[in-house]
Design a protein that fits this description.
The complex is a heterodimer. Chain A is α+β, with helices and mostly antiparallel strands. Helices cover about 20% and strands about 30% of the residues of chain A. Chain A contains nine helices and 14 strands. Chain B is mainly alpha-helical. Chain B has two domains: about 1-90, Orthogonal Bundle (Rna Polymerase Sigma Factor, Chain: A); about 105-180, Winged helix-like DNA-binding domain superfamily/Winged helix DNA-binding domain (Arc Repressor Mutant, subunit A), CATH 1.10.10. In chain B, about 70% of the residues lie in helices and about 0% in strands. Chain B contains nine helices and no strands. In chain B, α8 (about 140-150) packs across α9 (about 155-175). The radius of gyration of chain B is 18 Å and the shape is globular. The chains are: A alpha+beta, B mainly alpha. Chains A and B meet through α1, α2, α3, β10 and β11 of A and α2, α3, α6, α7 and α9 of B.
């Protein structure tokens, strides 16, 4: 190293590295991707009568998953699924006005959106739902015609999420409303799937169970747990975050093992106070059996919150929808909290 | 060669390849200096060109193609950073093994770096190594620099002055330690 302090402007004109690291292989991947993503022309948001179009923009955090290629096997071109509207006892469409959620289009011009149907579920606590004898009533989703959609639109504007047109046709948006305090949460679910249970925990958590009406073996579960120290928390941490396995074993908890389950994406904050994991469970000869994602956070008091979404699938027909759902989960750290609509 | 404004608006596959061959190294180098991670620079560089191909219609020719690409690259990096978690992407079956030897990145710098000046720059804080690279290596004007960084020209001048000062201090320190 010479003694003289460099003239930085002159010295840094030189290339930093001997060889180019932008390889022909990378160029080929770009070309393949560019060929797949033909730019869409603007899709004008079609407004249904009485529809409230809510603008949502969520940063796409899922590109790392796309780059990893591990989900390519789950991707399928999906034909548009019809949305099964909830019906009342007489079989009449229960929604008085269809509501839609506008999601930014990945391949469109600036401002281009795709609309996805917006459905609602009321989540009661066990005290709301429990019948004499300790049983809980399962309710199908009920349409919510109250509330000012503009307030919700303001709440979600801060985030950005983008989908392709094809992806938009595979999902619908679900707004979960807690009956006790009217807190609202937004998530994406596969298009046409109907609700079985929407529950609220006393700690502030929410959970939903859904099924595919065309194939009830296909189900989705979204669940949350909050605790400083519970078997549920430690099992999830040990199972989906291998670095926490040892810590869980100190609490006498072993990781859950399912033959064929593999972690596909995993990242944690440097402090270990938060993390995200995406997994896939395959079975020989059946392909993907379940796909899911888990995220956790730990506050300063040491209380953990675990959020998990898992979709049980038969075949690959809903694989594309599952991918969009889990990307939204990743972007929102679970369901997207919208606050109280008052 | 379709780098003129009019021709660029209708980028063909050949044009995309041509642009990548011409600017791929620059974009990757910039992203590596920003991220200091080989794999991440790989991913973000590819993403940059995918987006450039997609949004070519928004390129108005007000900046050079290289500057435009670097802006996209910068946005990609800062979008990545904006997410809640600091990512340590772990691929299945490849959980990191703890080791005390030279890291992959240190080895890459030792092997591929063209000189000590770049090794010093790589040790600077992000905002200083970024501004030095954009000004000194990519020769952005002060106006282009300020626009790229989203700051005023006077703020860019101040930051550049501080970057040079810190780089020089680091250089002197390492010379003293050598």
């Amino acid at each position: 190293m010479t003694n003289q302090t460099p003239d930085w402007e002159k010295e840094l004109k030189r290339k930093p590295f001997r060889r180019s690291s932008f390889t022909p292989q990378m160029m080929r991947r770009v070309e393949e991707e560019a060929a797949k993503r033909q730019p869409s022309r603007v899709v004008s948001a079609a407004r249904l009568t009485g529809a409230a179009v809510l603008g949502v923009a969520l940063v796409v955090g899922g590109t790392a998953l796309e780059r990893s290629g591990v989900l390519d096997g789950l991707r399928q071109q999906q034909t548009a699924q019809s949305v099964s509207e909830p019906t009342d006892e007489n079989g009449q469409a229960a929604r008085s006005a269809g509501q839609q959620l506008a999601v930014a289009l990945q391949d469109g011009a600036e401002g281009a959106v795709a609309n996805v149907p917006l459905v609602f579920a009321y989540a009661g606590t066990q005290f709301d739902e429990e019948k004499p004898g300790g049983s809980h009533e399962s309710k199908a989703f009920e349409p919510d015609t109250t509330g000012d959609p503009r307030r919700v639109e303001e709440a979600v504007k801060a985030t950005s999420f983008a989908v392709t047109e094809t992806e938009a046709s595979t999902v619908q948006a679900l707004m979960i409303v807690r009956k006790d305090d009217q807190e609202r949460y937004l998530t994406l679910i596969p298009a046409g799937w109907t609700g079985q249970v929407a529950a609220a925990g006393l700690s502030g958590s929410v959970a939903v169970e859904l099924e595919n009406p065309q194939n009830p073996k296909e189900r989705m579960l979204y669940d949350e747990h909050s605790s400083k120290d519970s078997p549920t928390i430690w099992t999830a941490l040990a199972t989906y975050f291998p670095a926490r396995k040892q810590e869980a074993e100190q609490h006498d908890i072993r990781a859950e093992t399912r033959s064929g389950q593999q972690l596909r994406l995993l990242y944690t904050s440097e402090s270990g106070g938060s993390g995200f994991s995406r997994y896939e469970w395959t079975s020989q000869g059946r392909g993907a059996v379940a796909v899911g994602a888990v995220c956790y956070s730990r506050d300063e008091q040491g209380t953990y919150v675990i959020r998990q979404a898992e979709l049980s699938l038969e075949g690959t027909s809903n694989a594309a929808a599952a991918d969009v759902v889990l990307r939204f989960f990743e972007a929102s750290d679970g369901v997207l909290a919208l606050g109280i609509d008052d | 060669m379709a780098h003129d404004r009019e021709d660029s608006l209708s980028m063909t596959a050949d044009d995309l390849r041509s642009i990548m061959e011409r600017y791929g190294e620059d974009v990757w180098n910039y992203l590596y200096v920003m991220t200091r991670k080989h794999d991440l620079a790989d991913d973000l560089a590819q993403e940059t060109f995918i987006r450039a191909n997609r949004y070519l219609g928004s390129y108005r020719g007000e900046a050079s193609m290289k500057t435009w690409l670097l802006r996209i690259a910068r946005n990609r990096w800062y979008s990545y950073r904006r997410l809640a978690f600091v990512r340590k992407v772990t691929l299945p079956g490849r959980l990191p093994e703890p080791h005390t030897g030279e890291s992959a990145e240190e080895e890459f710098l030792r092997r591929e770096s063209t000189g000590e000046v770049w090794r010093v720059v790589m040790r600077l804080p992000l905002k200083y190594r970024e501004i030095l690279m954009l000004r000194a290596h990519y020769e952005l004007s002060m106006e282009e620099l300020a626009h790229a960084l989203g700051i005023s020209v006077s703020a860019a001048k101040t930051r550049l002055r501080r970057a040079r000062k810190q780089a020089s201090e680091l250089w002197e320190k390492e010379r003293g330690d050598a």
